[in-house]
Specification:
The structure is a homodimer. By secondary structure, chain A is of the alpha/beta class. Chain A has 16 helices and eleven strands. In chain A, the strands form three sheets. Chain A has a seven-stranded parallel sheet. The first copy, chain A, has a two-stranded antiparallel sheet with strand order 2-3.
Amino acid sequence: MGTHFPMTRPINDTLLRALLRQPTDTTPVWIMRQAGRYLPEYNQTRARAGSFLALCRNPNLATEVTLQPLARFPLDAAILFSDILVLPDAMGLGLYFVEGEGPKFERPLREEWEIRDLSAPDPDNHLRYVLDAVAQIRRALDNQVPLIGFSGSPFTLACYMIEGEASRDFRWVKSMLYGRPDLLHRILEVNTQAVTRYLRAQIESGAQAIMLFDTWGGILSSPAYREFSLAYMQRVLQELPREWDGHIVPRIVFTKGGGLWLEAIADCGCDAVGVDWTVELDSAKQRIGHRVALQGNLDPGVLLSNPDTVVREVARTLAAFGPGHGHVFNLGHGITQWTPPENVAALVSAVHRESRRYHNPG
Amino acid sequence: MGTHFPMTRPINDTLLRALLRQPTDTTPVWIMRQAGRYLPEYNQTRARAGSFLALCRNPNLATEVTLQPLARFPLDAAILFSDILVLPDAMGLGLYFVEGEGPKFERPLREEWEIRDLSAPDPDNHLRYVLDAVAQIRRALDNQVPLIGFSGSPFTLACYMIEGEASRDFRWVKSMLYGRPDLLHRILEVNTQAVTRYLRAQIESGAQAIMLFDTWGGILSSPAYREFSLAYMQRVLQELPREWDGHIVPRIVFTKGGGLWLEAIADCGCDAVGVDWTVELDSAKQRIGHRVALQGNLDPGVLLSNPDTVVREVARTLAAFGPGHGHVFNLGHGITQWTPPENVAALVSAVHRESRRYHNPG
């Protein structure tokens, strides 16, 4: 059952059009982690919530922070404020955060019986707060810009579930992958079902595009990436509804460090491929731009400099993609907490201003 | 002035031949960080030394640990036991180690005056202990296998010198790169001179091949990689002697995460390009194998499994390179401390056994 919204497209639909490689007047722009710690108003709301997790679990406050960057900058999309790890948390792993150390799980998956016992949660039940946030954000947006829903990829979630925290060497994941691949496949089976249900529920609650964050696919060898990450993302996308309420729901897949595998990613059933800043957009466009849209790829480090440099690097990124449709401007990874908000303002206005020339060659 | 060794080639010269794409009967193999914490005898010597740094600074003990893996496994090369950070330490930055946290510098480069004051050390003076170790290891090897010398790349050293420690987001490096590129170029100029002098001194002391470790080049955008990392490695290689004592001294360049830039790396003046495990050797060979040798690229995670899996993955790696010369077998990154030594034994013997078929097609 879905919350039924009017079938109207958002007034600003450049993101949805660009993801489907349809003509637009400008290149749409949004920013990974655009609602985040670089914004003082975000830090205030987070302080009011008490913790990051409390913020994620409160639909009113999640809605508030989702809208904050849109009030400051003329961004072309909102993205649900949440965290990819709320899904494994709903599977019973016990998510918690230690200040300065990032997310951890109380019960990482190490024993065979723990893996056998794992099952996909019912999002209507265990992730109600996310779906409520999606519906509430969608209402609050009042069809101004589209809302993006998201999930971690089955493999990326498995990395956190097995390691129990962010890892440098992925010791336990690699041990399992090479030593007990059957156990890793079992986790990925469950995660695939969980991610599919979760994204379907987000779509039914009002998400107008969805994105798979494959943050850790890039730690794999090429054959292992195909077997343990890409194959499962492909299955998620096969199972998701292509349309909802009469509109196509575009899908973005982003594997950080996946630049060598763009052709394979473009074949996985997505509409757009996210690329990090190590990839050159002109070469990426040559390789896969006739099949899918591209999203990216400014180095978030550029935003640590100054507005002039930001404008110059934005222009360089737009020029690398060049004339034509099918580019969604974004960073190559999440924005960092040390970013001065005026650099974000410079970025967004530069994208809109400088991109016109590439869309109206006449 | 160099310590003069007889002009004899090592009895086992397969590494040197493979680096120059000359015929060999088997594929040579060595392992990044082969003298390290996965070996109980290494841990004993380190305990005797008192600390990792004391071990680096004691030529007798550095020689001892360099030889340890060769006593266990029929490896085709020795590599100087040292750390890339002893060079910035010799520049006055104050290297120290915190157990479980990795290397740190007491005085990271943040202020303009610190950067202006930086200068390249005289290795004969400030890095005497490394050169003594090189000469002593070379004598102890008694021409059985060649000795590899090494340095961090100018950019990779700069990352540690600016951040003051290993970093996840490279906040300060990126701020400088985009905000004050002149300062980063100044550091890289000094580092280039320092690395060149250091490697030249290693060659004069007995190193028969050299390797540049560009561990962090892969965090850069494609144009930034060329400007801030590759260009400076190229200058180091231009300045180094091509031959010593009548023998070519082959050069290996390894940029972790540099798989998208192999063509450019192959043009930088190296004889061999190191590749990490995200790269497929067959495609790398197709792209640059007619110009340079390839070194790599088994996922170090494979060594966390079991001998059967190791043998299977070694065979797959050798098959990916296929028939022909110019492959040096290695991991795609350093061996981890959790590796069971019997898996290393399985790797080395599998490389020698399984590679014969690719070298003797007759």
